[in-house]
Amino acid sequence: MDAGATRDLAIRLDVLWHDLECGRYGEDLPLWHELADNAGGPVLDVGAGTGRVTLPLAARGTPVVALDVDAPLLDALDDRAAGLPVETVVADAREFALDRRVALVLVPMQTLQLLGGRAGRMAFLRRALEHLEPGGLVVAALADAMDCFDETHDMPPLPDVYEIDGVRYASHLLGVTEADGQAVIHRLREIAGPGEHRQSRRVTVRLDRVSADEVAAEGRAIGLLSEPDLFIGESDEYLGSTVVVLRAPHVQVRPTVAVLAPSTAEQQSRVEEAMEAHSEELGPVDIVVIGYPADAPMTGEAVPMLVDLVERGIIRVLDVMFVMQGEDGKFAGFEATGLDEKGVGDLALFEGASSGLLGDDDVATAAETLEPGTAAVMIVYENRWAGPFVAAVRRNGGVLLDNQRIPVADLLAALDAAESTV
Predict the structure, then answer these.
(1) Fewer Cβ within 10 Å of end Cβ, the chain: N or C?
(2) Is-contact 17 32, C-beta < 8 A?
(3) Model's pTM, two decimal places?
């Protein structure tokens, strides 16, 4: 068999094994159909494969963008979708870019747990938010494969089997183990026939073990709004799933400014322009610079408090920039990317937070205040709690004439003076 024929056979087998191991599952379809009907717009099916979810949705008249990293699977889907409102896109879910928005992003069958941990999930969620219509939903099914075996299910299930032209294809679930925070699914794929010919191969699939609450918190950290979870019941053959539901705000922040001048007044002007251009309900936007001396204990206790403010919808973090001042006086700044490798602790939760409101000039300005061997973090955040008030003021013709903060020391001194006169 020449190289081309071998490649074609491998592609056909990839499609067959995907259909065999994934295609029979249908317990989730009623929920996806209901959500698509309610969304009333185009749907993005993430990890679409050969069309298990895409084809039934499209057959109901729903336009579907089917996204998968595996081109042969999408080629098979293209063939099966002839005449249906389906567009296929070969792309990584963490990096995709479409020329349209969708009303609903579906992530069925634990696809979210294949993205390589928190950084991968948050990269995907940012892409999903970027492509959602205002108020649109991203929904993701989660399950813990470690639950495949328990006291009532202590034996492997029967294999998934196809017989085609006298050849028997079987996929056996052998077991599930845990390694490095992941559930590792072990399968044996067997081909028997024609005649006495037999071959087998062991394969593994690694799924991140992550809870619905963790995913909801990750979504909130990048600006999505969490809604109550949904559920897909278990059957004799399949685990049940918890479905995380995240909604895009009806108004999203999309600043167009790439670099700001170091002037505080100009920064304020640019922020106000972005507020006018993108949202009547955008709250005031602040920039804080927090310095850390070389001997700072860096306990990390402040980060959970910041995350709590985000999760409760009080603020939204738009931009994070780190500045390091070397012992030789040279400084460097880096954005919130690749944070797991840069030793910033729990601030890695804000991986990818970048609105374009901070630039090189801001790094230089912050560095001027730092001593050698010290560091700082700059955070741009929206005061979401004030958004409705700001919108109401604007609707009534109000304009901001001035905005000042009273230093805490001045406030404490005034309070002390007031108490001394009582």
Answers:
(1) C
(2) no
(3) 0.64
Q: Encode 74-123 in three state secondary structure.
A: HHHHHHHCCCCCEEEEECCCCCCCCCCCEEEEEECCCHHHHCCCHHHHHH
Q: Helix, strand or coil for residue 58?
A: helix
Residue with tokens 């399950």: 143
The continuous run of DSSP H or E covering 325 comes out as: strand 315-325
What whole-number distance in Å separates Cα of residue 137 and Cα of residue 44? 10
Contact 139, 105 (CB under 8 A): yes
Query: Which of 47-61, 90-104, 237-251 is predicted with the least confidence, judged by mean pLDDT?
Result: 237-251
Give the whole-angstrom CA distance, residue 222 versus residue 125: 8
pLDDT in tens, 194-231: 877 899 999 999 999 999 999 998 888 787 888 999 99
pLDDT value of residue 262: 32
Amino acid at site 282: L
Distance CA 256, CA 233 (A): 44
Amino acid at 383: N
Distance in angstroms (rounded) separating the CA atoms of residues 119 and 115: 8
How would residue 244 be classed by pLDDT, with cut points 50, 70 and 90? very high
Share the mean pLDDT of the chain: 81
Is the distance from CB of 87 to CB of 66 less than 8 angstroms?
Answer: yes
Name the residue with tokens 């251009």.
Answer: 277
The residue extents of the domains of the chain are: 3-144+210-247, 151-207, 264-413
3-144+210-247 maps to CATH 3.60.110.10: no
Residue with tokens 């950290």: 221
Query: What CATH topology corresponds to 151-207?
Result: S-adenosyl-L-methionine-dependent methyltransferases (2.20.130)
Provide mean pLDDT across the span 346-361: 68
Judged against a pLDDT cut of 80, whether residue 258 lies above it is answered with no
